[in-house]
Write a structure and sequence with these properties.
The complex is a heterodimer of chains A (133) and B (344).
Chain A (H helix, E strand, L loop, with lengths): L3 H19 L3 H20 L4 H19 L2 H4 L9 H13 L6 H25 L6
Helix pairs in contact in A: 1-2, 3-6
Chain B lengths: L2 H16 L4 E11 L6 E11 L2 E11 L12 H11 L9 E5 L2 H4 L3 E5 L11 H13 L1 H15 L18 H15 L7 H12 L8 E3 L8 E4 L2 E5 L6 E3 L1 H9 L16 H12 L5 H27 L6 H5 L3 H12 L3
Helix pairs in contact in B: 5-9, 6-10, 7-10, 8-10, 10-12
The chains are: A mainly alpha (133), B alpha+beta (344).
Chain lengths: 133, 344
């Protein structure tokens, strides 16, 4: 998902450079330009949702702690895995190591990762307005 | 002079050069639509005199906008070649006339093809859903929908000269090529890390099925990419994603929930059982539902790649279309569908 401020900044550009110039009716045109101005103010008020960021961090912490308890998997974990980019890397490494892990170990680690993925996805779905339950 | 009028004059000039026998050539009913996410489309009628006779031909110009959804994967020349190759087959398509590489004319490469008469109701709109639901009751369009797909899968793609698209090797090659293609699109897009997408891609690679046979595959066969006239498919359009590959790839797309939001009918037009029976009857190809379920997940990856590319183009300031911005919120929705299909 694109960061809120970056998205607003590009919408402002679109309003100024594409939408407003194409509007012929003076009142509607002024509204398009003013929407750009107001959105610039809004951008200064906006912060990414800290509750979701905190939940994300907690979920990743818990995941790493649980995976560290799986002897064969713990060797795959690095300090920089405690982020979404790190989790991507860990998932790739786990699949890469699948041939030398026994099936039960791979399945257990994959199941635990998927549990965290579910939690991360639920956070994103709140922002997308599609939260379930 | 507006941008549209300028484009109209340039296209008219281009056609006059291509059709020296056409006297007093002029364009009427000229419209410019941003219908596709990837291409700009100009629709119009060309009128001229030839050997003393008044002529009229509906034409469509499809232009590469430069920063479209498929980025470097978009190949207008390939589209032109595909449509040209299909002219000699029974597949319902328009005729392709000229391909122009020179970007100085319209600001990007373009090609000119026949404007097929008919309509393309938008299946995502309420009016479109009603159109297809009514047509489904009459029964002719659902049959035509299946027949047009079967005509693509039954055609001799080597004889038609479509092997230039690239012929996958045996086994899992087709699937792995598709995954690699959409990974490359994802890699081109500004984005934040998406662990769920990584899990999906790794699962797809680990569980890739073997293609049992190869066919000419449209890649996005659904209502909205089909011109309808008199309750029949007059032409299959949007030739951007075609490949030589597993016909189940198209079948899975028809079966997918991605293309029938709010409708009990596949692609908003055809009953599932009827589709399965009639397709198998027309093609002799047994539908493998397990493989289709796999491809449905591959489509989730592809959709995610599209939305990351689209929203990335907007975030990068390369395309100002606000519809692209909207797609950033579609990413978790599609990934959620994939997670559910994978059982979590």
């Amino acid at each position: 998902m694109i960061a809120a401020r970056q998205l607003i900044s590009e919408i402002v550009t679109s309003l100024r450079e594409v939408i407003a110039p194409a509007v012929a009716e003076p009142y509607a045109k002024s509204q398009a330009y003013m929407a750009a101005v107001v959105l610039e103010f809004v951008a200064r008020q906006v912060e990414e949702r800290s509750d979701i960021e905190a939940e994300k961090h907690a979920a990743l912490m818990e995941l790493m702690r649980d995976l560290a308890r799986l002897p064969e998997v713990s060797a795959l974990i690095r300090g920089d895995h405690l982020s979404e980019a790190g989790l991507c890397d860990l998932i790739e490494h786990l699949y890469g190591a699948r041939a030398r892990l026994d099936d039960a170990t791979f399945a257990a680690a994959n199941r635990r990762i998927r549990q965290t993925l579910r939690e991360l996805l639920d956070g994103e779905l709140k922002v997308a307005g599609k939260a379930e339950g | 002079m507006s941008t549209e009028q300028a484009a109209q004059e340039k296209i008219a000039g281009y056609l006059r050069a291509k059709m020296p026998q056409a006297r007093d050539l002029m364009l009427t009913d000229f419209t410019h639509s941003a219908g596709g996410w990837s291409h700009e489309i100009y629709l119009f009628y060309a009128q001229w005199t030839e050997d003393g006779r008044a002529m009229r031909q509906g034409l469509c110009v499809r232009k590469d906008p430069g920063a479209g959804l498929l980025r470097e994967l978009s190949d207008l020349r390939e589209q032109f070649r595909v449509i040209k190759a299909l002219e000699a087959t029974s597949a319902p398509t328009s005729k392709a006339y000229w391909y122009e590489e020179d970007p100085s004319l319209l600001g990007g490469p373009f090609f000119v093809m026949e404007k097929v008469e008919g309509e393309v109701p938008n299946p995502w709109s309420r009016a479109g859903k009603e159109f297809y639901a009514e047509a489904a009751k009459r029964g002719k369009l659902p049959r035509s929908f299946v027949e047009a797909l079967a005509s693509l899968h039954n055609l001799d793609w080597r004889a038609a000269g479509l092997d230039f698209l690239g012929v996958p090797g045996a086994g899992k090659d087709f699937v792995l090529r598709e995954i690699a293609k959409w990974e490359s699109l994802i890699a081109q897009s500004i984005r934040k890390p998406e662990p769920m997408l990584t899990e999906l891609i790794m699962w797809l690679k680990a569980n890739a099925p073997e293609a049992r046979r190869l066919a000419f595959v449209h890649g996005a066969y659904r209502t909205g990419n089909l011109i309808v006239k008199d309750d029949a498919i007059a032409a299959v359009i949007d030739w951007e994603l075609q490949v030589i590959g597993d016909p189940m790839y198209d079948v899975a797309y028809v079966l997918s929930d991605l293309n029938r939001e709010g409708s009990p009918l596949l692609s908003c037009i055809v009953e599932r059982d009827f589709f399965l029976d009639y397709y198998q009857q027309l093609t002799g190809i047994a539908i493998d539902l397990e493989v289709c379920r796999y491809y449905d997940l591959l489509y989730a990856m592809r959709s995610t790649a599209f939305w990351l590319s689209a929203s990335g183009l907007f975030a990068e300031g390369r395309n100002k279309d606000l519809r692209l911005a909207r797609t950033t919120y579609s990413v978790p929705v599609v990934l959620n569908m994939a997670a559910k299909a994978l059982g979590f």
